[in-house]
Amino acid sequence: MDRATEKNDRYVSGEPLLPEGKIVKGKSKTVTDGPFTESKELVSGFFIVNAKDINEATQLSKDCPIFESGGAVAVRPIQKY
User: Fold this and answer.
1) What is the per-residue pLDDT across 64-78, written as a single tens digit (0 to 9) for each?
2) What is the rounded distance in angstroms from the CA atom of residue 5 to the CA atom of residue 61?
3) Mean pLDDT of 26-48
4) Does the pLDDT of residue 28 top 70, yes or no?
5) φ/ψ of residue 7, rounded to 5
6) Domains along the chain?
7) How far is CA 47 from CA 17, 29, 35, 68, in A?
8) Helical ranges in 1-81 per DSSP H
């Protein structure tokens, strides 16, 4: 995220993810090498931001540096338990 997002207390957390991992899925909890072995896309990191709704979060995502290398951003709410 950009410095303005950080200064406005919108940025909460974020980390790059390493390429290796495991997928656990289904009722039988089958473990396979991952991540996303059946997909052309991968999640390489994440940011958590404070936003009033998904539209504001989408606007904040436009400051993500991944766009400089042709990447994409998925904006999703966090599931609260």
Assistant:
1) 888 888 888 889 888
2) 10
3) 75
4) yes
5) -70, -30
6) 3-69 (3.30.70.1060)
7) 11, 28, 18, 16
8) 3-7, 54-61
